[in-house]
Amino acid sequence: MSLHVETFGSGAPLLLIHGWGMHGGMWGSVAAKLAERFCVHVVDLPGHGLSRKPEAVGETTIVGSRKLEDASKPFPNLRLTSYDSRLTTHDLRLESIIQQLSAQFSEPLTVCGWSLGGQIALRWAMLEPHKIQKLALVSSTPCFVQQEDWPCAMAAETLAGFAAALTENYAQTLRRFLALQVRGSEQERELLASLRNALFSRGEPDLAALQTGLEILRDCDLRAALPGIPQPTLVIAGVRDTLTPLPASEYMVSVMSAARLATIEGAAHAPFLSHSEIFVEQLKNFLHE
Fold it and tell me: Model confidence at 92, in pLDDT bands (50, 70, 90)?
């Protein structure tokens, strides 16, 4: 299966990978701002957004809240990939996701991953270090669930509750998860409304993909491998993030050989939306180093 990818702008390649239950459109205006200097690829992961619905081919694609046809100037050289909907459990596993991403992008590139997307980016950098030039990890963590020696994470019982609720009402479960992502952020109410409006703008995600994503978050622990990642890495953290708390970002920077931390005051789990100007400036500065 091919993934749905939108490509904007020109220059050095930069791939944006969204978080659990989301889609590429969640990056909103950030993609446009980055496309002024880079060739920005925005992907919908398997089972999310337009990487699952063959009937969507040929329809108008939405980027954030703007129609692509109305945003042609900031986004020259747009290309849409083809895809099909034959999803299997194998297609949705972490290594398989990375294989699909690797097949989609043959040239080395910088990868910017948000939350679950950050774990995908880390694992990809471990498996194919020649393919990943730089990493930007946004509101991410090497281990999403609390362990005896890892308190800066979500309680296992909380994540298990989300997994159980998925089978009963996954739309409501996703909305609850959105509320956790913006909790404590500046302009929390407005940000939550924006996220909820964008959540299903590309259709509803595949239930199997949602369940597999939670399994990845539950089982993935990349702490031991972090010292072996040589790529220059920017770790961007919202100071008010309760899903992936700041100490998790500080830990990554302390053990990775070429990582540095950029914190955003007043931001929670989606700093690229709540503080987009600061986020873009930090990322651009890092990419030009």
Answer: low
pLDDT of the residue at 170: 87
CB 256 within 8 A of CB 226: yes
259 DSSP β-pair partners: 233
Q: Which of 4, 41, 269, 275 is catalytic?
A: 269
Active site residue 48: no
Q: How far is CA 187 from CA 35, 37, 152, 158, 274, in A?
A: 26, 29, 25, 25, 8
- Model confidence at 1, pLDDT cuts 50, 70, 90, reads low
Question: For the residues 213-219, what does the mean pLDDT come to?
Answer: 93
User: β-strand 62-63 against 66-67: which pairing, if any?
Assistant: antiparallel
Could you give phi then psi for residue 37, rounded to 5 degrees? -125, -15
The active-site residue out of 44, 48, 51, 115 is 115
**Cα separation, 116 vs 214, whole angstroms:** 9
pTM across the whole model: 0.88
Residue position matching structure tokens 């948000």: 114
247-277 per-position pLDDT tens digit: 999 999 999 999 999 999 999 999 999 999 9
**Domain CATH for 258:** 3.40.50.1820
* Active-site residue, from 241, 249, 274, 275: 241
Q: Which amino acid is at 46?
A: P
115 given a catalytic annotation: yes
Q: How many helices (H) and strands (E) does the chain have?
A: 10, 9
Structure tokens at 134: 């730089």
Task: Output DSSP code: residue 80.
Answer: B
Domain count across the chain: 1
Q: What is the DSSP letter of 227?
A: G
Domain that holds residue 195: 4-287
Local confidence band at 2 (pLDDT 50, 70, 90 cut-offs)? confident
